[in-house]
Amino acid sequence: MKAVVVHGAGDVRIDERPDPVPGPGEVLVAMEWGGICGSDVSYWRHGGSGTAVLKDPLVLGHEVAGTVAALGKGVAGIDPGTPVTVHPAEPEGELPERLAGRTNLAPRVRYFGSAAFHPHTEGGFSEFRVVRAEQLRVLPEGVSTRDGALAEPLGVALHAVGRAGNVAGRTILVNGAGPIGSLVVAAAKYRGAAKVIAADVAAPVLDIARRMGADETRDLSAGDNLPEDVELVFEASGAPAALGPVLHAVARGGTLVQVGNLPGEPAPARLGDLVTREITWIGSYRFADEISDALVALREGLDVSPLITHTFDLADAGAALEVAADRAGGSGKVLLRLGAR
């Protein structure tokens, strides 16, 4: 089979790999669509993502969907041909009682397409992938595998919105309108937010945010300012330089949910308002099982299509990564066609 493999910084190849065979408790999935995430871009650009550094070639991709191709021994309750997406996490280790159910915070979490551990965890940008049966999520009727590939990042957004509690009827600011930020916009509106303001330094992505449900946008590159005294803010850019202005936009006694990944090394940031405004700053990391909630939202009509701006064949993965990395060029979610549709 063909697979999208990163060998090092700037070195992505379409490699031939042996066709996988499902073992006991496993399922073979014929992959159809994969969405390129910022971590995929980082592995390609830098040879690592955050604190995870490539030691061996790695199949990229954790936002995927396809159809069941074959069942391993002992697997029942699902038929070949069933359209599915995949929960890409495999938590390891015991959680303390206070973290019951928060599997994203397990001591070790292996994730599709991640070099966090060695041996690395291969991703899903390949024609076939064997997965544990419990990682499968059947797509609801009417949800295509193309949209199903976005269930994973939509799960990230729904988890972030859930970290803020009940958002119904509230005014919300989302700073950073890339794919995750735009999905936070959509997730907040889906959960009943009255007004969502999206801000970014790239005008093209603000147009995507509007089509994903933003009621108002602020183009920071054109001199727009962040709104003042917003009770609930989501920071989705992950830029340390943005923290000062974003914290200042939070109302006194308000809440900031940090969705964008911040650097794993020291970086300058202006944080004084965190104290003087008594802001509650909440972290949000991946998701527990909100990928299942994402499928319900898709079934109920949450439209992710405005986010999809480009599609490429698997053979053109290098060009797809180039486009995904160019936010100024207006790319939203870039999809790879991994196999038959």
Automatic annotation (TrEMBL):
Keywords: Metal-binding, Oxidoreductase, Zinc. SMART domains: PKS_ER. SUPFAM superfamilies: GroES-like, NAD(P)-binding Rossmann-fold domains. It holds the Pfam family ADH_N. One of its GO terms (molecular function) is zinc ion binding. Its cofactor is Zn(2+). InterPro entries: ADH-like_C (IPR013149), ADH-like_N (IPR013154), ADH_Zn_CS (IPR002328), ER (IPR020843), GroES-like_sf (IPR011032), NAD(P)-bd_dom_sf (IPR036291). It comes from the Bacteria. Residues 8-336 form the Enoyl reductase (ER) domain. Belongs to the zinc-containing alcohol dehydrogenase family. PANTHER family: SORBITOL DEHYDROGENASE. This is L-idonate 5-dehydrogenase. It comes from Amycolatopsis acidicola.
